Amino acid sequence: MKTFDPNSENQSKVEEPSSEYGMYTYADYLTWEFDEMVELIKGKIFKSAAAAPRRIHQKVSGKIFYKLYQHLENHKCDVFSAPFDVRLPVKSKKNEDIFTVVQPDISVICDKSKLDDLGCIGSPDLIVEILSPGNNKKDLKNKYEVYEESGVKEYWIIHPNEYSLLIYTLVNGKYVPSKLFTVGDIVESKCISGFKLDLDEVFVDLD
Length: 207
Hints:
globular, alpha+beta
């Protein structure tokens, strides 16, 4: 496997960096060529399956994105759907100092100074992740940790196969979980003023 050598003057595009060894940065990430989606969490590579997200995943994502887009049309916040790079710097915003780059299913950013041509640099206000077979550990553990540490105000986790939604709200730097919401519930965001989501509308007609 090829790896990236920042000291090499003749270094070509990295086609297949190792996902098991080394610490990578956003500077490395920009050189990679993958057929599938790749995320970087605390310097480690996380690959998604080469196939596109499953149909139910896409339907749920589309419904929530549409509701948020409608609500935010005349609002100061912007909503984006994957693929959309969110860089979460810790010490510096320099590419070589950023070790976490994720592509949430849906991101809402209210501070437009965080937006640039490459995506978002800094924590979104709201992130929605929709669980798919095989990526639950990444979303439930690894992303939970970096979202909490980076100050993402709300982290919504949706399990489409179980028709459920769990909301983590940042309180004094730590996430506080909601009850488990499901069909029949209407949920309301605490960080996006006035936004409510009827889960009946999200989970209907998924078969």
